[in-house]
Amino acid sequence: MNRLKAALPTLGLAMLAFAGVVAVLATGPLASSPDALLAALFGHGPPDAELALALRGPRLLAALTCGAALAGAGAGFQILFRNPLAAPDLLGVSSGAGLGAALALLLGAGTALVQSSAFVGGLAAGGLALGCAALTRSGDGRLALILCGVVAGALASAGLGLVVIVAEPYSQLPTITYWLLGSFTRATLAEGLFALAPVCLGAAILLWLGFRLDVLSLGDEQARSLGLPARPLRLTALAAAALMTSAAVALTGIVGWIGLLAPHAARLIVGERAGRLIPASMAIGALFALVIDRLSTGFGPAEIPVGLLSAAIGAPAFLFLFIATSRRS
User: Which CATH number do you get for residue 182?
Assistant: First the structure.
């Protein structure tokens, strides 16, 4: 009974995100009723509902996947580093994914290869940061990871700047810039499902770690005193968070602030425990991604990149949450 009571806020957030999906599909130029959408999901709905799912379904899947992945990874980073400013790009994963995609676009690759290159680039940057941190003998493992992540991100950003300089200014450069600003429109259903697999794997690892993350947030000495291998567990959690971030950036481009904002909002609702904070953050992140996706098409015929909207909305929202949290403390 106590577990069910503790899970009610997270279940409520998940239902709210699901209601957001239904609201998006039930409004707009391809609006359909919920019962028609449910029938179309099983292949027995009216043609207009099936068309709405075919055209808007991949975009919604990309938004949900990206928002949940970045928020879950951000919550994991904030728990591990005991730092409310920790974000999914802490290990340079987003910069590495951007470099991989830019290189593929520079070579004229197709969409699938661009996303694969972004995924590999993000994992490579995260792996570089984790590998360098593992080679250090620093007493504070968190500090070593942060410093190595800064170095990996700086190297990836330098490479990305070089690609931008080399790119042809009238064809390649606008394509690279548009990709880096983030968008949910270019994802197909197959690409969304392909990205969903590593996101689910990373989330499952973080949720499986559960209370171990809470212990790790207290420090290595406390973890070892309880018989937990602090360093391997931390590297496993960071690898899972990096996997989620790489998949999200490869699918939609660089969309900031979700991984920083959603965990703060979830913390006000469900508290600090990892088993509750991570799924609640993922639900809020998915809902936030739906909101900015809807707003991106609501200001005229030209779509506003979701990366710009996430910063424009996320920055003041984060400031509000920070002030509210500080006053409550």
Answer: 1.10.3470.10
